[in-house]
Amino acid sequence: MLVDRHFDLLGWNTAWAVLWGPPEAVPADRRNLMWLMAVDRRLREVLHDWEPLAMNVFQHFRAQAGPALADSRTEEVYRHLDADAPELRHWWGCHSVADLTARTITVEPTGTGPVRLTLSSFHPVDDPSALVLLLTPADAVGHLRMAALTTRAGAPAAAPAAG
Asked: What is the CATH number of domain 2-152?
């Protein structure tokens, strides 16, 4: 998935949509990674240990936001978060910052067992304010389960990497 400096979703693939739901089903003004982490019930249900990752996403946004904190889109995202996830209001006022750290997460999509994924993030060289999030199966079982999920969704399964 690719997000801009406001963490608005710019691009995703079938595997992302299979895990978290199709982003195009979310209103465009709420198609934002922070909003999805805070509000999207499917994401919370599928993702084990949701809170540490969600908090790290917010901390990373604050770490890289800089001048973006005062712009109209950032203010709009915070208004949506405040309105749609009032139980997390204390997060919006927090000033802690951190890099989005690589980690292994576990998801459990409907119709399959747990899938361990490695989360990595990269800043494109030509736009360091953007962020690419990459979720790759952490083991052979995860690869098989993700291949089955994406195949059911109509996407061709990727071949496993030679190892």
From this structure: 3.30.450.180
